[in-house]
Every structure is written in structure tokens, then in C-alpha cells.
Amino acid sequence: MKKLLFILFAIAPILAFSQETLTLEACYDLAEKNYPLAKQKALLEEKLNSEIRVLEKEKLPKIDLNAQATYQSDVIEFPLTLPNTNIESPNKDQYRASIDANQLIYNGGNIAANTRLKTAELATQQQQVAVNLYTLKSRINQSYFSVLLFQEQKNLLLSKMKELETRLNEVKIGVKYGAVLPASEQVLTAEQLKLEQQISQTSFDRKKALNNLASLLSQNLDTKTILTTPEILIAPEIESNRPELELFDLQETQLETSKEVISKSNYPKIFGFAQAGYGNPGLNMLDNSFQDFYMVGLKLNWNVFDWGKTKEKKQAIDISKEIVSTEKETFVLNNEIQLKEAESDIKKYEAMLLKDIEIIELREQVLQVSTSQLQNGVITSSEYITELNNLYEAKIDQQVHKIQLSLAKANYKVIKGE
């Protein structure tokens, strides 16, 4: 065991140098890049481009091929007979085939308005993706600092093991020369085994937390990966910059653009049209033969009275804008509450850390005395272990409070949108 610990501590600097390190900011970047939801931004943009191309095709001429054959029960007849003139009635069976072309000339800017609406929808949808990705930061914080906590706890346990190994070697010498009872060595050995168990458990807990973090990042993380403790500075004077605030603004812009589309839909539309065909009869209904024909012209379509539908639609959009406004106010209020809670947590852990320093100083003094007493045979190994555990429990508490303080600061920045 002694040789194993010696080798472990001897190669630790070499291993630390070769191990990969990971920062909290790097985790944020990896999640934003690799999380499956991040792919939606590019997909939404492709979708917009397709929809805009469809809208632009509305400006192109529409060409239709039509054909029909009919038989009707009655046709036009002329009741009068003119001298030297024979007017035949149309056939009851009639045939027609034609090619019709329609070209949009003017639609009041409806296509452009719909294009702007699609663009506004894209901005809103992409910002919604950004909001969803931003919520990952809180989960990343929890996993990251859990890994960091187990990492620091393991380091403290290894330090405790080193201290215990030193005392055990001293006791073994005392037992060898009869100055110390064998029971003292057994007590220290049992404590050493218990400590090995704790180190093993901490390693497994760290691996589990690291796997959770790796899932959020969609990245393979080796168990040798070392997480760095971030230096987090908070700035209460800076205004909140959460992505949700921009999302609310974009939603209002999208609704306002929808009103423009509704207005444009009632503008007059002018089309040019052309028709060329072949049929029996043609345009001359009095000629019972197959003829080719054509027709060109302009057409106006204007819904001058829609029974107030446009007004009702705009009122519905105004109500939707008010709903978005209330959602924004609610979010800002809840965000302020969360910030105050985070500030309170930060102050609490800062106060606890000040006490931790005092506690550890006192525990170190007590352990120093206990070590001397153990070496001189004044106290038993059990009494020494009690003071050793007290010191390292205080150190672990300090480390926990440090991690909790860093987590509270990280959450504060996430809540504020920094």
C-alpha cells in the first residue's frame, strides 16, 4: 500500500500535465454546438428559403391546360327564318381544348408582405431555439459543479490518506519495538481501508456526474478529464439580458407584420390573361365546325366589402400582442425574484466560508497537538482518528461551500443572461 501511494503521488504531476482540462465556458460552447436542438437553426433557415421561393413563384405566369366534351339537352334556336339564309343551331355535342395563361400584374404588395412575415417568423423560431438552448446552462451548471465537487473531495481524501499513511508508519515502528500496542496499528489500518472505500465511492460518483455532463454536451468525456474551478465575477448593476426578452420583442414584431399582411390581402389584384384553344364550336357559336381561337385581356379582383373580417382579425392580433406583453412582464418579475434568491445564496455561502476558515485553523491546531500526543503515546489511535476526521470534515465542508458559492454565482449569471 505504501509503495502504491508513493507511486500515485509521484506520477500525479505527470498525469495532471497529460490530462485534458475543461472549463465551464467550453461546456456552454460545446452544448450550443453539439446539442441536437442546435441543428434546428439551420433547418429553419432552409425552410424559410423554400417558403420564400414558393412565394416568389406567385409572380410567374400560371399556365393551365383544359379540355372538355359535353352533350347538352338543348341549344340556341332562331325562331325566325330569313330569306336566302340558313342558320344552323349549334350541335348538342360540343368539344373544347384550350391553354389558359394568367399573369399577376399587381397585388398591392401582398407577396412582399408575406415574405417579411416569413422572415419575422424565422427570427422568432430561431430565437425560441436559442432560449431552449440557454436553459441547458442551468443543467450544465449542476452537472459541472457536481463533477467538480467529487473531484475536490477525492483530492482531499487522497491528502487525508497521505496523512494517515504517515501516522500508520510511525505506529508500526512503535509496535515493532513494543512502545505501542498492536491495536493502535489495527485501528489505523481499518481507518485506511474505510478511506480507500470512500475514495472508490467518490470516483464512481464523479464518473456518473461526468457521464451526465457528457450527455448534455453530446461529447465523450474521459474519466481523466479535469474540470477547472471558474473565476466568476458578478455585476449586479448590469441589466438583465435574457434571450427570452428578445423573443418577446420578436413575437410582437411578428404579430405586427401579420397585421400588414391582413391589410395587403384586401388590396385590388390585377391579372393579365390569355387563352388559345381549339373546339367545336369556337367563339363563333353559329359555326358548327372545329375552329381555333384565342382571347387576351385584363382582369381586376377587388373585395371591396368583407363584412368587417379584416377589422376583427387585426383586433385579434392586438389582443395577442397584449398577451405577449403580459407574458413579458411576468417573466421579468419572476426573473427579478430569482436574482434576489441567487444573491441571497451568494451572501450565505460567503459568510459560511469565513467561518470555515476559522474552524479549519482551530481543527489544525487540535490535530497538531493530537499528532504529538499520539507520537508520545498519550492518546490512542482512535482518539487521533477522531480529530483527523474532524479536520477533514471541516475541509470537505469548506470545499462544498466553495463549490456551492461558485454554482450560485454561475446560476446568477445564467439568470441574468450575462
From TrEMBL:
Pfam families tied to this protein: OEP (PF02321)
Source domain of life: Bacteria
Localization in the cell: Cell outer membrane
Key word Oxidoreductase present: no
Signal peptide: 1-18
Molecular functions (GO terms): efflux transmembrane transporter activity; porin activity
Record keywords, A-Z: Cell outer membrane, Membrane, Signal, Transmembrane, Transmembrane beta strand, Transport
Protein's UniProt keywords contain Membrane: yes
InterPro entries named in the record: OMP_efflux, TolC-like
A GO CC term attached to the entry: efflux pump complex
Family listed: Belongs to the outer membrane factor (OMF) (TC 1.B.17) family.
Descriptive protein name: Outer membrane protein TolC
